[in-house]
Design a protein that fits this description.
By secondary structure, the chain is mostly helical. It is built from 12 helices and 2 strands. A hairpin with a 5-residue loop joins strand 1 and strand 2.
């Protein structure tokens, strides 16, 4: 019997419509009153690169604060102590329920409540001098991220079978050692994928720190756009840099997920390089056969 494949005309029509819409969008941007030559001219500008560097720094530090504090909050939330559990729940409720933009402004303007920052013999200064744009951005982003990371970590911890914990306790391991040696290594397979997404989302959320006057990528692009007159063009430069950085983070997330999936999958998914090699070899084999 000769099998005749079913023709899917709807797929070809949908593909043609999608390509037509894409071509119309490209043509609209190409015919627009935009100086596209300004994009490569300012892409590696020193001020833009400084903004990129500051964006990467604040992203990494905010995620470190968010991950560390998120693990602590997740453990507190799962605690049988009603006080610590309630405190963790209240923290998560507050920081997830208010916008990041508002939190950044509150940290920056908290000098209206606290005139001084007094750490006894270690440090004492005016709040306006203590709360720099960098610190306001770090606290606003990091503490907000901790609320989301707490829920991610809690889901990962709860994904580990309770029998693992009971067995570890039966062997004489303490609760802290069980969490560190048994539960968290197994929970990482669940925690890593959403954490990677949060890292990428954090990179884009850093654009809000312009509210507290922190010099990031968007601030650099805005300043250059105001002085050069290429306002829209500089926004495209910022968008291009965000795409480059998020693409690099996506690649790193893929390999990190692949590493932590070793204990759950018998055969790991091929890497992009392995896929490329397989496709190249599949093209060469018919020629070698001739």
């Amino acid at each position: 019997m000769k099998a005749i494949p079913v023709r899917h005309y709807g797929r070809w029509i949908a593909a043609a419509v999608a390509l037509a819409i894409l071509a119309a969008l490209i043509n609209a941007f190409a015919q627009g009153n935009i100086n596209w030559n300004a994009v490569p001219d300012y892409f590696f500008d020193s001020n833009v690169l400084k903004g990129v560097r500051n964006t990467i720094i604040i992203t990494i530090l905010s995620m470190v604060v968010g991950v560390v504090l998120g693990i602590v909050l997740a453990v507190m939330r799962l605690s049988k102590n009603p006080v610590t559990s309630s405190i963790a729940w209240g923290y998560i409720w507050f920081f997830r329920g208010t916008p990041v933009y508002v939190q950044l402004l509150v940290w920056f303007d908290l000098g209206l409540v606290f005139k001084y920052i007094n750490l006894m013999p270690f440090y004492k200064d005016y709040w306006s001098s203590f709360m720099t744009p960098f610190l306001a951005a770090l606290l606003g982003l990091g503490l907000n991220e901790a609320a989301y990371m707490a829920e991610i970590c809690r889901a990962g911890i709860q994904s580990v079978d309770e029998g693992q914990t009971e067995t570890a306790h039966a062997l004489g391991m303490s609760h802290a050692k069980t969490l560190r040696r048994v539960v968290l290594p197994q929970a990482m397979r669940v925690i890593v994928p959403p954490t990677g997404n949060e890292f990428i989302n954090m990179l884009k959320t850093t654009s809000l720190v312009i509210a507290v006057q922190y010099y990031d990528l968007l601030q650099a692009a805005t300043n250059i756009g105001q002085t050069s007159g290429a306002t829209v063009e500089m926004l495209f430069v910022a968008a291009a840099w965000y795409l480059v950085l998020t693409s690099l983070l996506s690649v790193g997330q893929y390999y990190l997920e692949r590493r932590f999936a070793r204990g759950a999958q018998r055969q790991l998914p091929p890497t992009p390089w392995q896929k490329l090699r397989a496709n190249v070899l599949s093209l060469r084999r018919p020629q070698e056969a001739r």
